Amino acid sequence: MDTKIIKIDRKNISEKDMEMASHIIKNGGIVAFPTETVYGLGANGLDENAVKKIFEAKGRPGDNPLILHVASIDDIIPLVKEIPEIAKVLMYRFWPGPLTILFKRSELVPDIVTAGLDTVAIRMPKNEIAIRLIEKSNTPIAAPSANLSGRPSPTSSVHVIDDMKEKIDMIIDGGATGVGLESTVLDLSGDLPMILRPGGVTIEDLRVLIPHVALDPSIMDTRGHIVPKSPGQKYKHYAPKAEMIIFTGEIDKVVSEINSRKREYIDSGKIVGIMCTDETRDLYKDGLTISLGSRSEEDDIARNLFHALRTFDEKDVDVILAEGIASSNLGSAIMNRMIKAASGRIIAL
Ligand code: TXA
Ligand code: MG
């Protein structure tokens, strides 16, 4: 399939380009588009055949449900059975933005979107191009992250092109995404509101409005013993080709352990990547060193993580030795992705 790639400036959106993109969605095709979190792979969320193409393009298992993207709070009305009071409060506070909420689904939502579950995940993205695309297509847009299943989510159009060229109808290049990690997935159906996937809206942000919000215990489970409530969380994810190991603890100890392991790996002929921070970058002498940013700027670390993982792949690194990040605020979403990328290999010093 010939994939059309168009560049759109989100501050000056071309109506003609949006017309072309929405035409594809309306006719059951697939368009990759930017959101504030990561790029999404979008199709008409009410068209079963269109949604099927998303699963094919990604190689995504059929039991992993998709998020529906809407352009306004009112757009959710036909998609859900009921809107809990607390959901209203959260939507007014955090939408548009990186918070996905699970609702009891209506009959309108096709089974393929929810993987047969009785809930549907919905969010309103904070990106002008995404919003215009949904409005002009006049339908909710089902969109997972626009990566091949198992790879790091795309934070630039280059990543989408690497994974999806020739597989989908169109890629909208709208520049780099802002947050760089996916949205927070929140389940309000149980006794306690539960975060099924940490993301752009932090648990600390949510606690201001829902003090009793909990994290699904599987999220920081490094051994994979606890079954996650969200189907997507059980899959191998964000996985670079290299073996990745995370080191946590006092930073001096982390640096010296990474340096000594690095020596051993290099001596045995392996290519070593080091994922570190600005504060420590100069303490690593050889190996391919990538800093994610300053430890005091979690936003930067979040934004740079997936690109760093892809860069290590391009450089054919065999082993990635990574510094752990403190698990508060955005840090828990960052560490959740890192733990998955490392398949749970984490060493506490
Ligand atoms: O930021 C984001 O959320 C991006 C952008 C494109 O919006 N999308 C994204 O979609 O990350 P995806 O499909 O890569 O991840 C959606 C996650 C999966 O882990 C999936 O299992 C979970 O949300 N999910 C979707 N519907 C669900 C449901 N009804 N119940 C439980 N988990 C659900
Ligand atoms: Mg994904």
How does this structure look, described?
Helix 7 (203-207) links the parallel strand 10 (194-197) and strand 11 (214-215). The longest helix has 17 residues, at 251-267. The chain has an eleven-stranded mixed β-sheet with strand order 1-8-2-3-7-4-6-5-9-10-11, with helices on both faces. Strands 14-13-15-12-16 form a five-stranded parallel β-sheet, sandwiched between helices. Helix 1 (15-26) crosses helix 5 (128-137) and helix 9 runs parallel beside helix 10 (330-341). The chain contains ten helices and 16 strands. With 349 residues, it is of the alpha/beta class. Threonylcarbamoyladenylate (TXA) binds at residues 35, 37-38, 40, 64-67, 98, 100, 102, 114, 117, 119-121, 125, 143-145, 182-183, 185, 196-197, 230-233.
Q: What features would you highlight for this structure?
A:
binds magnesium ion, binds threonylcarbamoyladenylate, 349 residues, 10 helices, 16 strands, 5-stranded parallel β-sheet, alpha/beta
